[in-house]
Fold these 2 entries.
Entry 1:
Amino acid sequence: MSDIPEQPSDFIRDIIQADLAAGKHQTPVTRFPPEPNGYLHIGHAKSICLNFGIAREFGGVCNLRMDDTNPTKEEVEYVDSIIADVRWLIDGWADDRIGLENGQPFYASGYFDQLYEFAVQLIKKGKAYVCDHTPEEVDFMRGAPDRAGEPSKYRDRPIAESLDLFARMKAGEFPDGARTVRAKIDMSSPNIWLRDPLIYRIRHASHHQTGAKWCIYPLYDFAHCLSDYIEGITHSICTLEFEVHRPLYDWILENLDLPRPLPHQYEFAKLIPTYTIVSKRKLITLVNDQIVTGWDDPRLPTISGLRRRGIPASAVRQFAYNIGVTKYNSVTDIAVFEHCIREDLNRRALRRLAVLRPLKIVIENYPESQVEMLEAVNNPEDASAGTRQVPFSRVIYIEQDDFREVPPPKYYRLSPGTEVRLRYAYLITCTGIVKDPHTGAVTEVHATYDPATRGGNTPDGRKVKATLHWVSAAHAVDAEVRLYDKLFTVPEPDATGDFRANINPHSLETVTGKCEPSLADATPEARYQFERLGYFALDTDSRPGKLVFNRTISLKDTWAKMIDEMAKRGYLSEKAKYLAGALIEILKHGSGGKHPSQCWLYQKNGKKWAHAYDQQIAEGGVGGEPIPPTSLDGEKLFRPKKNETIQYIMSFGLSQQEAEAIFTANI
RNA sequence: UCCCCGGUAGUGUAAUGGUAACACAACGGCCUUUGGAGCCGUACUUCAUGGUUCGAGUCCAUGCCGGGGAGCCA
């Protein structure tokens, strides 16, 4: 179900390939080392796909390891969720490459004895010492990027004394923070992490794996490289922020005189998708503030959220492949992910008919008691999925959106007097409407069907523009359907200010839909396409007789892409709404009321596009006389191309989508 | 301010000194019993300046811009 090539290529795989060719290793051993202090998210998925993908492609192994050196922040709940998420993501793909210990993950805490001995060794070699400074003193004495550090008073204390103190630290003689073990490296290094970094601290805390055994715990830099070494990791792949730690990673391993080969660390840029957040802290805020229902809320980018939403693991993997692996700090358009999901689901989803916002249709010339079973294909992309029977009768439901009493231009669907096709059924023509006498809303539509068009065929060859989905009212099965939308209204919710201000109030809408009867037997594993609506999967809340579906993702909908639709759904940011009016006016004004591409722009600082009437836009309106185009900083004015105008609009902080909408709206 | 790492269409990613390309997004068309899918097409690219070279996105220098780095977090 996946198009990922057997041998993807990126700078890390290139290195591995070269290392293998040079005979440095027989096969690569990677690892995925999360700290169990939160749920895994789409960013971790990128790392999982990278590490397990490498193991898979080069015949190696990827160890799953809990990086659990900080007992005060970690919990078994997280350990369990991490295991489940990793298994789900690699199932059927790299599940034979996972490195485990007796079926369980590796734990950094499993190495605490060895780590302790390594620290003793370092002290014995005069390369580490016990330091008695307070946290505040250590902090100050470390210096700053532009201020040299000063050595600890205890830097040169006798080795025997450090050894004794370290043993007593372990024995629990000292309170938290009283002493630390520090590597003796270089207090004047421009790299702060080499200024005698701490490698052990006292923490009288119970650990989720080791219980009360320890009251001293190693720090990340010490534990990680050595855990890699102990497990025989060849390529230790982490994210960019650890780049400055690499000299320390190497220093520890090299100064312990370990047999070679040593593991090496490589760094790549983490994934930052638009319209969501992946910061652990902010994810916790969303959960704790009950903005979402839990860690597996289908609106969240957590792996458990994606799973619950119905996104296939293969789509996540394809996404990880598509975005590549580099050292460039990038922001990935969430549309790339959505494309992968649709592509995957399009191939596998069973087509079904379901109406989310029902409008009753009475087919006047269809016999009252008659029911016909009509054949419908399960998946036009996959003939082996077969067909099914769908009941048709006199009263059916169609989507409210599929009927307009007064149709807008280019509206092909049902309206008084028009004919449309009911998918797999008949062509019907609207003959009348019934309105609520008080509200004036259309409550019922009357129609006639053409018996010659059974199955939706037109023996006379006549064309009908629209094909609508429908459900027989008497046979319909009710379902709760949860319609999800982006959790945030702006591409980069936490770029500036409080990300909570950018939460999309319409991220969840729940409706009661009418489903074709076969959906009563829907299974949690199956993926469904409700035709013309989107892809849906059963939610974990679903029970027999009480169906609950999640909309995984909508179908691409060109009709819905109009600017008013965008505004209605909250896709247009407040900023865009505010600026749209002024921009449209000013662009028209600058072009003598014509097309915006006829306005004048000039180049500012040789780089940025600027509009001849910037000043007036900044002042929020179009009042007054335009500045004569000749008086602008002596810069040459020119007629921008469409794309340059789009870029110009975007320079106000709007997305391309918004800019296009504004541009289009002005035509 | 110091150290490290980056900078290729709107967004990502390729091109490993030899014709700048692919995907997504956008736009247009064809086709369609899903306004889906599919097919065809259009527009838009190497941060800047110098240097090396027959030839530079690639190598060098300088500058500019962006990210990371001063937890007893990972």
Entry 2:
Amino acid sequence: MKKGDHLFLVDGSGFIFRAFHALPPLTRKSDGLPVGAVAGFCNMLWKLLTDARDTSVGVTPTHFAVVFDYSSKTFRKELYDAYKANRSAPPEELVPQFGLIREATRAFNLPCIEKEGFEADDIIATYSRQAEAVGADVTIISSDKDLMQLVTPNVHMYDSMKDKQIGIPDVIEKWGVPPEKMIDLQALTGDSTDNVPGIPGIGPKTAAQLLDEYGNLDALLARADEIKQVKRRENIVANADLARLSRTLVTLRTDVSLDVPLDQLVLENQNGPLLIGFLKTMEFNTLTRRVAEACGCDASAIEPAPVKIEWGPAAHGPDLEIGELQAEDGAATVASPVAGPAFASAALPSGPTPADLVKARADAFHGKTIDIGDYQTIRDLPTLEVWIAAARESGLVAFDTETTSLDPMLADLVGFSLAIADNTHSAGTTEIRAAYVPLAHKTGVGDLLGGGHADGQIPADAALTALKTLLEDPSVLKVGQNLKYDYLLMKRHGIVIESFDDTMLISYVLEAGRGNHGMDALSERWLGHTPIAYKDVAGSGKSSVTFDLIDIDKATAYAAEDADVTLRLWMVLKPRLAADGLTKVYERLERPLIPVLARMEERGITVDRQILSRLSGELAQKAAAFESEIYELAGERFNIGSPKQLGDILFGKMGLPGGSKTKTGQWSTSAQVLEDLAAAGVELPRKIVDWRQLTKLKSTYTDALPGYVHPQTKRVHTCYSLASTTTGRLSSSEPNLQNIPVRTAEGRKIRTAFISTPGHRLVSADYSQIELRVLAHVADIPQLRQAFADGIDIHAMTASEMFGVPVEGMPAEVRRRAKAINFGIIYGISAFGLANQLGIERSEAGEYIKKYFERFPGIKDYMESTKAFARENGYVETIFGRRAHYPEIRSSNPQVRAFNERAAINAPIQGSAADIIRRAMIKVEPALADAGFGERVRMLLQVHDELIFEVEDDAVADAMPVIVSVMEHAAMPAISMRVPLKVDARAATNWDEAH
DNA sequence: CCCCAACCGTA
DNA sequence: GTACGGTTGGGGG
């Protein structure tokens, strides 16, 4: 072990105790063996191992050990016979679990440590001090106050149940003394649970105050006669020896002779088959499934490991030395009460690799016929309950809703479908059955009395009550396709889906940039199957009907097939995450965002229709004025909004010099072309540009937005798409609230219509220059890093470096050019593009770029290495490992290739920034809840580098620092950025002023 | 009725 | 030079 390493020490006995008491008792299904504590222990360990690598603890362990008490016979008992004498014997049902928990530890491939005569705490203390001595960091997984004496700047404790780290300040806050005085404090207070006597009448508060005053226990005892309070003085004088004895008892030994040296505690990789074998034996189906998914194993191909259970009073069993477990020859036999060959031996069972599972699943599902005639229609509650029970037993179910609208805020539930895998064959063959549950179908439309409730449907409230038990059961994985839709819809019915996967998001993580991730496309790609087209059941265009008017038999085929296909896609796609090393991206950047975005969409934002209506009127008047002037100048009336007609007027009739052609050969009438003509002194083009701006604002915003106000909530609910960009950004639609005008004064007026509810403010918090900061980080550019560290004007710095102009008194034009170059770099610069942007010659732009690369050679290196990586792999990666694919990067067409190269250069920058704000969004709600804000602060919108919240007036001042802090540290602890992130936040009653 | 091109709003 | 979505006009089926 060396400096920089990180040792995790789990207080195994503490874990057992907490697992046993925190959870309802659980017995093994097949033989009634109590395994509740084993289950709790395994779940806690699994959570710790997966979380520890990222957010919860904030550090990645290099070394790891689970430490147990050996028995109750310790040196302390020798010292003081009454030590822990009042401890009652462990509960009967816990006894057989002690051995199992040690087996569990080994199944997790973790060192399992104990030592005769010592408590776990002494071993932990010894390892801690040894690790500290070589400069390593230590995290002790426990919240036991007995261990707090070990806390130093390098040694932390971590309460995994409360997800809370305990450092020196936390000890002081809790006990009133720093960690090094904890021993004296415990000596004074004693400990009733361990029967440590202490001094009667002295509790933690008094003890802390005394230690503060006298410094330490010895000084206190020596000067006890100075204590003013009579009773207290007498107690202390009379019991000084007891206090000294107590001190010995609570002082942890740091000199335990360790059987397993520190260096052997290296954290090994998870051995999937080993762990799964054990978990299957324990019949922990949910955890088995999770582990199998995480490590890409096919659980059905792994046999339960033989584990001998010993009933009876033996709490510990024969001596077990960890050294034997780690014997290199793998031949060590361990006579543990529960040892089975698969666990006692260092020869680990071999199982299918993630790649094997990927292939097996692809073979099993691609091209397999899907019989849509086999689907069942569930028309009564008992049948539904049977299906739900089967789904819960299986632990895996695909779920899909059918509704009357694509907008989840307006949709009415019409029915839902379920698909279950009957995975009975250990060979891995899987039978899938699916069913549709109609709830609100109506009788035929042709019917004169049409529109009535159709017969043979379960009452919706009864069906939803049954469904709720399934969807909210965390031990059943719900699989959906575009699950955010169903999540939001079910949330509107009071059901909060717990434990879920989304095949659309899995596909997006695997192959962003390679086609879309809709179900039909995925089905074609992975299953070789064309699902029934929606328009084939609902019709299209004017003759289309809503789903409630579709015949139930036809609806069953369509809806059940969707669930069926979704489950098949999950089978095929999910193992690919592990095989491609993308599980973390999916689990940390994608899946958690589903509930976050669903809540944001459900909340919506208030838009003042009066303001918009007034603006519409103003825009109409101004546009009309321009129209008459335009007709006057053109000499005729025409459709100004038609680029074709406008081109004919300008370049045909008026004979103006055409600037450029579009790719279809038409004259371009772009704003750029019109501006150029205006600059040359022609009057008409300027008016066209102004007219276009006004009509754009009117048609896209002031006229359209009121139509999105929800009839019930009176708010506007945008829809965020998680899977529609190549880079990892979100997109927003219906309405798009990510392109509300801001650049012109006229446009900004539209933002004043986005308002907070009375008694609240809108708080806008936006990242400053996040993409340039990401660039400075990934390309590691010293000048950029320095400039950001110093908080100086980044564009002025660039200009100064390039042109040798001092920042003081720099002409605006010089800075403007540098700014354009900085943006150009992010976009994968070309001389052509930069020349266009700045209105300069290509050759001059080329000179700028050359100069820039001379000053910042690291940027050139970054661009070249990114292009090379993309050419080699067909994708690029963000700093968090998200992939963006560019399948055309090797195109023989130079234009196509160059375009893909620029996009590939841009993607890690734009995508890393997108990942950072995603992390902020996932973290900010829990952080605000922890800070006690609850629903007083509600996140409403995301605009790529900006988050908008609605905050109760009284909470604004206190909530803003929390928001800013979460955003600025959002990359941590996964990535420690080489540049600081900066967030600006403002509060106002409308979006314009808050921004 | 559907789709595409052109244009333009945002980061 | 990157990434999106919405509106309009206009052509083709």
